[in-house]
Amino acid sequence: MTGRHPDAALLLAAAVPLAAATAAVALKAGHWRLYADRHHIELQPQPRRSCPDCRGAGGWWVDGANSEMEACRCWTDRPELRIRLLPIPAWPGEPPF
Question: From residue 80, how far is each of 24, 44, 75 by CA, in Å?
Fold first, then answer.
């Protein structure tokens, strides 16, 4: 392919880094975190720094007898996206020895 169509190979070699950079900018602008391994690809929403409620912290602490963190709606109302690639192998019920 490279002998007969050198321009196409050069264009393809330049398109891959450009696509990766564009995807990174889109994920950062949309406040997503990308996680990928051989079993799945995951997109998780992240808190927005411009949020007037949490200011990018993701939530706030609620006072009381059992203090706990209340999550902000700037990221908890957005669904987590997951694509399964390979099944996770079953854990054996007994030790191998």
Answer: 18, 5, 10
d(CA 19, CA 39): 23
Retrieve residue 83's tokens.
């694509």
CA distance 17 to 68: 43
Any residues with CB less than 8 A from the CB of 19 and at least 6 apart, and which? none
Half-sphere exposure of 49 (CA within 13 A, CB side): 4
Residues 21-71: pLDDT tens digits? 777 777 777 888 888 888 888 888 888 888 898 888 888 888 877 778 888
This model's pTM is above 0.70: no
